Amino acid sequence: MIYSVHGYYGKRHSRKAHSKIEAIVFARSRELAEELVKQLFDNYPVEFEYFSVVGGQEQDLNVIYEQRPELRYEDPDRGYIYNKFSHQNAIYRYFK
User: Fold this and answer.
1) Minimal CA–CA distance to 63: which of 1, 9, 6?
2) Which residue, 23, 24, 36, 96, has fewest beta-carbon neighbours within 10 Å?
3) Under DSSP, is residue 49 helix (H, G, I), strand (E, B) or coil?
4) What pLDDT is attached to residue 60?
């Protein structure tokens, strides 16, 4: 349910050095976690050099909500990215 997503991304057809993203995602499945992070790049010409989704021990939702009360009102089917605004700013600055 809680995944760590790592990846290196670069600007398509550019010699600019690649940048790294490390995000923590609360989602129902590994595929949803990957999709949520890749959606951050929808408006940019991006190519991924490396992309990895790790974690997601199957825990009961009540245990997760106990350990992380900030997730109590988040739906795992919709997903949630920690510090999404910071990631969006970093991506914007990279492609600017």
Assistant:
1) 1
2) 96
3) strand
4) 82
